[in-house]
Design goal:
This protein is an alpha+beta fold. It has 2 domains: 256 residues, 2-methylcitrate dehydratase PrpD (Orthogonal Bundle); 123 residues, 60s Ribosomal Protein L30, Chain: A (2-Layer Sandwich), CATH 3.30.1330. The protein contains 21 helices and 8 strands. The strands form 3 sheets. The chain has a 4-stranded mixed beta sheet with strand order 6-5-7-8. The protein has a two-stranded antiparallel sheet with strand order 1-2. α5 packs antiparallel against α11, α6 crosses α11 and α19 crosses α20. The protein starts with 10 loop residues before the first helix and ends in an 8-residue tail after the last helix.
């Protein structure tokens, strides 16, 4: 049979094509992988990423809707896996769901600029839940976490998501499924099958949700964790996937331009978890370059009072320029408003969690300042993606002075990283208000020694501790 309709490929053609070689390559690589063979620097980085994710989940769980969801899931049925920061233990898939949601709520979870998303928080909740269910060791959890992070990030880097698709919940589903399958002892054949089944369970969600402040957007990562676990359940039960579902979904449905070569290039010698970034500004990553410049201008020139500012101009790359809405109506929308993020940083002195909550959200000084921020795309900056995330900020003062600055990278990037101590300090800043300093330090110590833990019941017990306000 032949067809003339564009994009319609006959089954005879599809079925004649072989399964991509990279699937088998990845399955072989994963089954022979062990943290025992990894350099100390990679292990240390993986622990930092894990610690960062836990801090983001614990703090994010204190948001009203996340705490309510954890309580609702607990009423449906309790289990053994911590809903981190909620003070309850849930069934594994429910815990992975709510932990994934909580981890993205504050816009403080780590990410990978080459993947253009957040691999860690898409993988850790599912990996932890499955490791606990199977009595796995801390070293085995680290192994699954690193590999789940790696395969998810590589899919993200090997394609270009469509501009209307939100990156949360997409390729992270593959990472969650892969880590889950490893924790359940999948062989090479079923690991490869899991990749394809997980791809078809990716969330195809609208990017507009983040711009509109639709808080359902925070569920996408939770869905990735839950769907990843379900993908393995399907494969373990005998279900099968497409011959090349990753190529289908990330080559033409959610994304385009998928490059199989990217899945195996330098595999085993270059790890995406070592090319990650950490966040200190509690706002969308795309705002960070401009915020870094603003913070530097204040450090160099002293506090800039809102009434002294005539206008603020921002030139940045395309995705950041999209965040130009000056009138956010809720906390989530504020985190995705570059004008508001700049204004609240100038008034509060930092883009902290509280800088995006009340009373800042309705502060007239911040609102008025946000209205005089103008944002535009700089085509030369867009051309520097993904290796760089540039922005230039010009502040015109009413006394005639003009302050300006530029950055090509974001603080916390792989090329301008935070120190390990800075990442640990961030964890304490997020976890201590939840559990108190002493308990937060116990969690930190458990993560630091995770590779020597015979099982994960100790860490899980620490993560099940209720928040201070609940005692």
């Amino acid at each position: 049979m032949s067809t003339t309709s564009p994009g319609l490929v006959p089954a005879s053609v599809l079925l004649a094509e072989p399964r991509p070689d990279w699937l088998a390559h990845w399955a072989r690589f994963a089954t022979g992988f062990s943290v025992d063979k990894l350099p100390p620097s990679l292990l240390a980085q993986a622990k930092l990423v894990m610690l960062d994710c836990i801090g983001a989940m614990a703090a994010g769980m204190q948001e009203t809707e996340n705490a309510a969801l954890a309580g609702r899931l607990a009423r449906r049925g309790r289990g053994e896996v911590a809903a981190i920061g909620a003070g309850v233990a849930l069934r594994g898939d429910d815990a992975a769901f709510v932990n994934g949601i909580a981890g993205t709520a504050l816009e403080l979870d780590e990410g990978n600029q080459f993947a253009r998303g957040h691999p860690g928080i898409h993988v850790l909740p599912a990996a932890l839940a499955t490791a606990l269910a199977n009595g796995r060791s801390g070293a085995e959890l680290l192994t699954a976490f690193i590999l789940g992070y790696e395969i998810g990030a590589r899919v993200g880097a090997a394609c270009r998501l469509r501009p209307s698709v939100h990156p949360h919940g997409t390729w992270g589903t593959i990472g969650a499924a892969f880590a889950t399958a490893l924790m359940e002892g999948a062989d090479e054949t079923r690991l490869a099958e899991t990749i394809n089944v997980a791809a078809t369970m990716s969330v195809g969600a609208s990017l507009s949700a983040m711009l509109e402040g639709a808080t359902a957007r925070n569920s996408y990562c939770g869905l990735s964790n839950r769907n990843g676990m379900a993908a393995w359940d399907l494969v373990a039960s005998g279900f099968t996937g497409e011959r090349d579902c990753v190529g289908s979904v990330y080559g033409s449905i959610l994304a385009e331009g998928f490059s199989p070569a990217g899945m195996t290039k330098e595999l085993g010698t270059r790890f995406e978890i070592e090319r990650n970034y950490f966040k200190r500004h509690a706002a969308c990553r795309f705002t960070h370059a401009a915020l870094d410049v603003v913070v530097r201008l204040v450090a160099e020139n002293g506090t800039l009072a809102p009434e002294a500012i005539e206008s603020i101009e921002v030139a940045t790359y395309a995705m950041a320029a999209q965040l130009d809405g000056p009138e956010p109506h809720n906390v989530l929308a504020a985190r995705f408003s570059l004008p508001f993020a700049i204004a609240t940083t100038l008034v509060n002195g930092e883009a902290s969690v509280h800088a995006f909550r009340e009373p800042s959200l309705s502060d007239a000084r911040i609102r008025d300042l946000a209205r005089i921020v103008r944002v535009r795309e700089h085509a030369d900056y867009t051309a520097l993606l993904p290796a760089m995330r540039p922005a230039a900020v010009t502040v015109r003062l009413r006394d005639g002075r003009v302050l300006s600055g530029e950055t090509l990278t974001n603080r916390g990037d792989a090329v301008d990283p935070f120190t390990a101590d800075e990442v640990r300090a961030k964890f304490r800043d997020l976890a201590a208000p939840v559990w108190g300093e002493t308990h937060a330090e116990r969690v930190h110590a458990a993560v630091e020694t995770i590779d020597t833990a015979e099982n994960l019941t100790g860490l899980n017990g620490l993560l099940t501790e209720p928040a201070i306000k609940d005692r």
